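Table S7 (text form). Paired inputs.
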Amino acid sequence: MEATKGLGILRSQRAQKNVLLAFIYKGGSILVSLLLISIIIKFLDKENYGVWLTLSSIIGWLGFFDIGLGNGLRNKLSISLANNDREKGMQYVSTAYASLAIIMGSLFLLFVIINSFLNWQKILNTNIVSESILTRCALLVFFSFGLKFVLDLISVIVTASQRSALAGLINFLTNVTVLLLTFVLTKLSQPSLFNFVALTTLSPIAVLLLANFFLFYKDSMYSSLRPKVSHIRSYLVKDLFGLGLQFFVIQVMVIIIFSTHNIMISQIFSPAEVTPYNIAFRYFSVVTMVFSIILTPYWPAFTEAHVRHDNQWISGSVRKLIYVWLLSVLGTVIMLVFSREVYRLWLGPEVTVPFSVSAGMAIFVTISNWNSIFATYINSISKIRLQLFNSILTGIVTIPLSYYLSKYTSLGLSGIIIGTSICLLFGSVWAPIQYRKLITNKAKGIWNK
């Protein structure tokens, strides 16, 4: 009992340290992102920026074709480290890198063939950028995103080892690099969508290459997990993908729920309307980011506590997270009240964001953060079958509902996010129920799968 209590205290201290450091890094990343948006809009103009956002969101779907391998690796590696089995951990890491590299390489070769047949001007509903430039941009974004997803496994590894703040540091350094190079680009180049795309997609790869090299070769904690060809185990692919496939389906539904927003806005309204929508999303995502900073260290910590049957620590931690959520609701309301003034100070009078869009984002953030508390625990112990079915149902309903509310009611642009928020309410009900059943060891049937 004393040993379990001691481990719980250590686990809490690690989580608190990660949260504190992550706040510093994420705070810096938020500031950098806000500065970057202002620079980009002035450099590209509103419609070019909307084209970039839509293009990146479409090709960003590529990230979900790791078949959930990243989340599968996070859980399996956390269990290996909790059991002090670093040899097994190295095998999982090596197999994950090899598998994801093969997946992304295959998808890129397929995209090279398909890309020449795509009409990007029609897809993006724009004619201000030539088809040849859009085709080259799409090819470059696809290549760099694919390579980034492989290299970004290092963030999964540091998170699984309960050092999630390191992932925040890597992201911060990436954002700073993009900001500095974008600023230089605005001084040395005429407005160019292709130059901007090349800079913002290739510079993160350089940072991730350095992070992989430094941690695997210079940090003793991770050198024993360094991926090696000799440690690739084909039989572990089933281990990673068996769990990962369920995460994959959930992630595909997340694509449908979120990434189709920009496409719907471009088609129902125009690419220019993507910009105010995205600005409101980024503004209120500050709350989501802060909440995510707090939640992230708890995923591997919940996994370790579950392996050690420390349900008391888990329930106490969830209770604290609910109190934090209540504070986040207050913060969201304050942000909504002052949103117009903030937009004006941030971006000037050039961009107008309807208050109804801001209100819809505030509702969405509140519901999403509530769901995230319970999803973090449920995901960490791999009891995701119910979440799988819920995500499929939500994905099926959200597009027609959001489309109807935005096109055929007076809600307009805000109908997109309100439709999504309504669909998220399903998870707000069943997830707390499943958590309670799991933590009290009363979960049976689908509640325990």
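Next pair, protein 2 of 2.
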Amino acid sequence: MGLNMPARTVLFTAARKFDGKELRWITSGEYIQMSGRAGRRGKDDR
């Protein structure tokens, strides 16, 4: 299940996240997934 929240821009304030146990670096796959949320044609409000 996913949540569609249209965004024009994605801004990272940190490259680490808390995973429930510790603060860890995000993986390249997580980065690609999160940064890919922005700029989806026809999905953001103009």
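The radius of gyration is 13 Å.
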